[in-house]
Amino acid sequence: MSTALELGPGRTDEAPSALLRDSRHVLGHPRPARTRLLIALNIAATIWYFSWLLQPQRVGSPGLYAVLVLAEMANLVQAFGFWWTLAHDRERPHRPAAWPMVPVDVMIPRYNEPASVVEPVVAAAVRMRGADVRVHLLDDGDDPAMAEIAARHGARHVTRSEHAHAKAGNVNHALAQTDAPYVAVFDCDHVPHEDFLVRTTGHLEVARTAFVQTPQFYANHDRHPVAAAAWGQQALFFGSISRGKDAMGTMFCCGTNVIFRREALEDVGGFPVNSLTEDFELSLVLHERGWRSAYVNEVLAHGLGPEDMSSYVSQQMRWARGCLSALPRVIRARLPLRQRLQYLLSAAYFLSGWSILVYMVLPIVRILTGAQPVAAATADAFLIHFAPYFVLSLLAVAVGGAGTYTFRSYSLAVASFWVHISATWRVLRRRPGRFVVTPKTGSSDRQPWSVWPGLTMSAVLIGVATIGLWKDRSAGMLNNVAFALVHVSVLASGMGGALLSGRAIAATWVHRDDEARWASRKTTPPAG
Amino acid sequence: MTSTELSRSETSTGAQALELSAPSGRIASTTGSATGGRGSWRGLLVSQGVVAATQVGAGVVNLLLSLVMAHQLAPRQYAHLAAFLGVYLLVHTAASSLTPAVAMDPSLQTRLAPRSLQLGLLLAVVVAIAAPGAARLSGLPVSAVVLMAAALPGAGPLALARGRLYGEQHVLGVSATLASEPLVRTAVALALVGSLGLTGALVGVVVGGYLALLVAWSVTRRLPPRGQVAAADRPLGQRTAAFTAASFLVVAVIAAQDVVIAGRLLPDLDSGVFAAISTLGGAAFFATSTIPLMMLGNPAGRARQALGSAIVLTALGSLAAVAVAASLPDQAYAALLGEPYAAIRWAAVPYLLAMAALGLSRVLLAHLCSLGRGGQAAVLACLAAGVQLLLLLRATDVTGAVTATAAAATVLLIGSTGLLLRAGAAPAYGPSPGGHPAAGASGEVTGRRRVGVGRWLQAAWPLLLVTTVGAGLRLLVTRSIWVDEAISIQQAQQTFGQLIHQLIANDVHPPLFAVVLWAVVHLTGSTSELVVRMPALVVGTALVPISYAVARDLWGRRAGLVSAILFAVAPIAIWYSQEARMYAFWMLFATVSAWAQLRVLRDGRRRHWAIFTLASVASLWTQWFAALPLMVQHTVFLTEIVRRRRGRPSAAAPTSLLKPWLACVAVSLALFAPLMPYLQAQVGNVISASAAAGVPSQAGTSVSSTGQGSPDIYAVFANLIWALWGYHSDPVMVLLSALWPVLLLGSFAMLGRGRDRETTVLLLTAVLPVLFLFLAAFERRQFFELRYFTSLVPLLLLVMGRTAATWSRGQLGRVLLPAVLTVSLLSGLADQQVNTANPRVYDFRGALTFVADRGDSNDVMIYAPVFLKDEVAYYQTATSVLPVSGVVPRRAPGRRVFVLGSFLDDKATSAAVGTALAQLRATGLRLAQVHTFANVKVWEFS
Prior knowledge:
The complex is a heterodimer.
Chain A: H1 2-6, H2 16-27, H3 32-53, H4 62-87, E1 103-110, H5 115-126, E2 132-139, H6 144-153, E3 156-158, H7 166-177, E4 182-185, E5 191-192, H8 196-204, E6 209-213, E7 217-218, H9 225-247, E8 258-261, H10 262-267, H11 278-288, E9 292-295, E10 301-303, H12 309-325, H13 327-332, H14 337-348, H15 352-369, H16 379-400, H17 407-415, H18 417-428, H19 452-471, H20 475-499, H21 502-508
Parallel strand pairs in A: 1-2, 1-4, 2-3, 6-9, 7-10
Antiparallel strand pairs in A: 4-8, 5-10, 6-8
Helix pairs in contact in A: 3-4, 3-16, 4-9, 4-14, 4-15, 5-6, 9-17, 12-18, 15-18, 15-19, 15-20, 17-20, 19-20
Chain B: H1 3-11, H2 16-21, H3 24-35, H4 38-72, H5 75-95, H6 99-104, H7 107-129, H8 131-138, H9 142-167, H10 171-196, H11 198-222, H12 235-265, H13 268-287, H14 290-296, H15 303-327, H16 330-337, H17 345-370, H18 374-394, H19 398-423, H20 443-476, H21 483-492, H22 496-506, H23 512-524, H24 529-555, H25 557-569, H26 571-577, H27 583-603, H28 606-622, H29 627-646, H30 658-672, H31 676-691, H32 701-704, H33 713-725, H34 730-737, H35 741-749, H36 757-776, H37 792-806, H38 811-834, H39 844-854, E1 860-864, H40 869-874, E2 880-883, E3 897-902, H41 907-922, E4 927-933, E5 936-941
Parallel strand pairs in B: 1-2, 1-3
Antiparallel strand pairs in B: 3-5, 4-5
């Protein structure tokens, strides 16, 4: 009974303030005045740049010009989408937990992850407060060790005879065997905070709310350059972007650290089973059927980010293929324009590798052939139009990313440009995708093969730059060589995680053998 | 109390606990020697004598090698060898300022060795990479620079290892390392010089150094280890340590600076004579240099005897040298130094006496340091050096120069004796052999002092080296006096009243720098290039340690060191340290006021408010454009005041800034008030100056602007490149500007980094004035020019230093980033200093010296443009001098006419020169030849 009293709604406002504070530290918080000013300046700078670029006399080599404008436009669309979302950046007010306590089925789907990764999740899940918690370990690996873990912590070990449709199939199978009105889902590397339900169930009380999403925090972000860079990308998404999407009612589900209303899941027939990004498509369907979504801007679970390049690449490949293959579905969706555009923006992000490819190829073409996309422009004129646009766009990312989105995150995204290209190709050829679980423990070896396209591109850029310098050393050539070398530097930084030895990384990065995630009741959330 | 304790307490009190914990054998030996009689004296004299004799022998071998090489090498190669040895000696002198500190606390060797080696390696890499540029800069072959780089890592460890040997009183070890260096050097040089020439000789020098290090190391490795010392004990002695090293360094400066300055200031023959006597004096001073070091290694109990024996030996050695100098016949001088120096006894004897006094003072200062009174020793040494410098700058002949050094030595000798008498005779220095310093026989006070030595030196040793390098670079390649400098020098030669009147009537700058220059010129009675540039040189060099202090205070030691290195080699910092103008002062004040502001924002102390107020007003007294960064700084204060007022009050909230800020503004205004008349008058000057072309105070604007019309992005790049990488020729600037995409990389790299208040404030203070002037330049083009936002340079360098020091997480990156930056600055420096296509280099010195050499009083020189009046007056020629607008001189038998033209890209000047040339031809004169100097042309008619 004491537990029930302790978890009453009257008490919930005290503990979470620390959580909120820490979350703000890593995810930032809305700064409306600053953001609006920045967006206004960005729009002005965009008009300034494009009104210069799009004049007929700028056309140099027509083909190259067309390609450049296309890439710039694709970039601009993403940028506009980002500013639009940023303009709606608000923090959702807190709602007291559902009271009296409701039953919640907590699903922890597991495929082949080791016990050391899974056990802390189960242990933390059973300790969650604020609801009548029933934990289910959905073991698709049929591992007796998992049964043992479940038994040890008082959870239910769920297996199925047929392992079809990966994670979506696994969860759907468990849904059929359970009946609590709310269903929380955690990937088996995400350790929930004991107040997860206290902070989220209140929002489900609002009518027609299908799910409440919370951030996906990488607790191992201080242990590996790849995890750090990936966390920077996550932080930008789960900070200002997710808050903005939430304020516009377009937050989509990210598959873990999320709690659903069973009624909504049943309304759409559970998780879609024919997608690589079942969470994305599920959200789409829910929104189509008039359900609402919510996002709570608090780190309420600690997960593990990819700890080596091949894990990162396989994760990105899955997301890119899933989202790109969902594009036709998004375009057809029966959604208000605002929601449809938001889905489009999120899915089309995975095309941005093409723009990066264009930017890298342009100096190569210029050095080898002398052809330039833009004509009748001095460097001076170009810079006076381009520099404000560039600097302000970057500033918007910096402000939106609240300092967590770093050069490392950016360069990792650039160095993975080929993932988007490869994903586009596979989607266009309609190659069936396989749900690949992102490995939870990193390899300590060098993984040059996981970044071979980036390495090839770097070699080409260096080779072409050398040829260029050999051909002539005029200012124009030097400028393009500088461009090429800038690309090489960014690529090298992005690929660093794959090219450095485990020893070099261990020497530089905080390396602890203990658990990075919240592993016990007493552990407090780390300061980002 | 045992008899041992009793006898110990007679010599030192208050250290009983430590003594009792020490092994009894050591105490017994200490007290034994304290009460010991003749035996210990003899021992001391013998060990001192052996080491000193070895040192003398080493000197003799070096001299012999030098003589042999003079025969073996071609004159040019021999000159290279001499230059190489000069730099080598400089490095080792700087490094060996550590030796006395290590002699006092041998445990320092273990603690400092890795760091000094790392620093040496880093410097070696930097020098090696910059070798081609450095070779061009110094005129040495590249192989010599590379060998210098190879020698660098050895200097620090050698000084430390020798210090340890002195500290351990290891007579054999000291002698071995002292003797091995010249012997090996000679052997290798002689073996290689036949086949490799100069390179062989240089290899000998380098190998000799390393072998001496090897010898010293192998001896120290066999000694019992010296332990670490408790951190809590360290702070007390930090200052003493600093001052010990500083004292020895300043004494070395006193011994060396006279010949450098006399060489520049005295007439040719006098400077030659002075060089000859200073060679003799230097040799005598060198011969006694081991004595204070051996003395410092003595245990406390023997301090008096050690001091006594050191004084006796130094006096004997020095007086012997004086006696020899006095008794040598003229022929001997001629044989030794050359025919012109046969009759220099009259100068050699007093100079050697002065050196004897200096040698004795060195012993007394060392003792003073060991008593924990290093501060007094350092102040005294600086005072003596100052006296010497002032007198040297006024010296017009050998007597004057000798008097200067004698005066310095006298001040030192009397001062140190007085201080020692005041301090009483409490002996302090020296560890017991093999013991833990903190538990040494010298007791608690000494233990604490010695501990501090290490901590301070860990910080100061690289800084001393960097500052020395910075000073060297500032002295290395200098330009001709520039038009603006010539005007300042002309003003400085007036009476004070005239100066002020001229400033108000004709100038466009506030008076601080002009007054400083006036004082220097009147105090020294000289307007030589070195003298008039001395204020900028001193201030510019001081910026190196000041930048270290600032960056260290704000971001830690690493950032401090990287900043100091950047300041030491930054081309613009060096450029303006070599110019008799106010910009170096402005950089200094900008740095100090920026630092003080950050400290105020951090903890709001009154002291920092005061420093901020003074430094910011001083910057206004130096340059009117300092008002711009100042406005930014006050806006930052106002913003912070508002921010703090809005913030929720809590116990932990920082104090309000409003009241102190108001006080700061009030004091600033009061201090600024005397400038109002200047401001009013000079605003009028600026308006009339920009209306009339060719007014002297505006000279040079055309070369410094990047083009006419409105400012553009190129102007921004050009100024940014100037600010960091220095002034370059137009083709180089075009290529450098083409590298702008690197800025994109820089912008990306800033992602997730810019959340630090200190950097933000610094960048705002640096960049907003530039932005303002960029906008202002649409009205007046010439405003957008680095000279008007020179404060940008130190602030950017600080931010860069901080960034380079802390950016990378990896070990490699932490070294690579500062190294790459330093090398890039060094490349910029090399191009700036030696590329004669640099549009800012005007070789008036070369052109006017040329005219002076060829012309006589019968000849005439016509110059254009007219504002070269002061320039022409500065580099006097025997010819009559006419501005171009004057009457064309009549033809006279044997008369030559020179036409000196500069700023020929100005149409009016070019036309005036053309007209003059045509008129001269019309009078029947024949153009003999045209000589081209950097941006100056001379036509010679006869």
